[in-house]
Design goal:
2 domains, mainly alpha
Length: about 375
């Protein structure tokens, strides 16, 4: 297989930054954009190399499309390329969501802003439901011939944990992965569970603040796609630390969907609510740091990771639990709605997303417009 070309940092910054600006639509759109750039138009990577990159990054916790962006930049520009490409992909959306955070989390925002946020937030539960349902087919395809009953149990555990343990959902995800590893290879499970358990213990012992810990869970201990960050953050941000109201958290998730780049940008809104601009920057840095670390430290070993049976087994347990958590997150998100018209907006969004198969961004913008119209005619708005 031919070695990839070596690109200049200017080229990487330009191309990865362009995708960071136009990358609306979440991981599927990001993967399509990078494939079009690296494989189809420029032939910098072969189709096989790109598919191997997707397979390897899918085995890692954290934001998959961000790790794919960093990994492709690493293949084409080494460590400097990874840093420049990752920054180019992340920073445009981060800047946009910080500006929107100032508007939507202001102490006395205009009524039309409250209405737009309430409308878009009302649709978030339907977005979560669609995200979870969309992950089921491929996950079930891998499990149905080997462990269908365990797959269902892992999914149920994730769903129930979202409602019962909230902020510590991550331990359920890790436990499901370890159980699946034990079921396939008893001798390896203890070491794997211990290595994952060490991470939260080490973090707590290091005196890292609550905001950094929440962001770390999002960036280093989340499995199953970008939307699994919603149940990981909601209990901490709203119920435990009281950084945000339910309505503000719904706004945060909606903003993470309608801005370009990684969905994980939602953590910046939580950080802003907790500690202003510096809190947003801290939360973002902590959430994205593991993605850079995984690539810079382990990229040369990705070929072995992709075929590693232990890694695959762990993900086959944690993945279904994450899907259950995403589906379960729709329940508290829906219960957070406080006005009758928001329930109607949620119902319409569910029809648009699940029946008419409309796009997420289009649906959220339409729901925001509904909320703006309610505000303009003097309708009731969330406090």
């Amino acid at each position: 297989m031919a070695s990839p070309p070596r690109l200049s940092l200017i080229t990487i910054l330009r191309e990865w930054g362009r995708i960071g600006c136009i990358g609306f639509g979440g991981p599927p759109a990001h993967i399509a954009l990078f494939r079009d750039l690296c494989v189809v138009r420029r032939s910098w990577l072969s189709a096989e190399q790109f598919e191997d990159a997707i397979a390897a990054t899918n085995l890692l916790p954290g934001p998959g499309s961000t790790q794919l962006a960093i990994f492709c930049a690493w293949r084409l520009g080494g460590v400097p390329g990874a840093l420049v490409g990752g920054a180019g992909f992340i920073l445009p959306g981060l800047g946009a969501i910080l500006l929107l955070s100032v508007l939507f989390l202001a102490s006395a925002p205009p009524s039309w802003v409250i209405g737009a946020g309430a409308g878009a937030g009302a649709a978030v539960a339907a977005v979560a439901l669609r995200a979870g349902l969309g992950l089921i087919p491929s996950s079930w395809e891998r499990a149905r011939d080997t462990h269908p009953l365990r797959w269902a149990l892992y999914g149920g555990a994730g769903l129930i944990a979202t409602a019962l343990v909230g902020a510590w959902l991550v331990l359920v995800l890790i436990a499901c992965g370890a159980i699946e590893l034990l079921a396939r290879r008893p001798s390896a499970a203890g070491d794997t569970l211990a290595s994952f358990a060490f991470v939260p213990l080490a973090t707590a012992g290091a005196g890292v603040g609550a905001l950094a810990w929440v962001a770390f869970k999002v960036g280093a201990l989340s499995y199953g796609g970008g939307f699994v960050i919603v149940p990981l953050m909601q209990a901490d941000a709203v119920s435990h630390y009281h950084w945000m109201t339910d309505g503000q958290f719904l706004n945060a998730v909606a903003l993470g969907q309608v801005t370009p780049g990684p969905v994980v940008h939602t953590v910046a809104v939580v950080g802003y609510a907790a500690a202003g601009t510096w809190g947003a920057l801290l939360a973002s840095a902590v959430a994205f740091a593991p993605s850079f670390s995984f690539i810079l430290i382990g990229a040369e070993r990705f070929d072995r990771l992709r075929t590693d049976a232990k890694a695959r087994a762990f993900l086959d347990g944690a993945g279904p639990a994450a899907i259950g958590a995403i589906l379960g997150s729709a329940i508290p998100l829906a219960l957070a709605l406080s006005e009758t018209w928001q329930v109607g907006a949620l119902a319409l969004a569910a029809v648009a997303l699940l029946v008419a198969r409309r796009g997420v961004i289009t649906t959220l913008i339409a729901a925001a417009l509904v909320g703006m119209m309610v505000a303009l005619v003097g309708g009731p708005l969330p406090e």
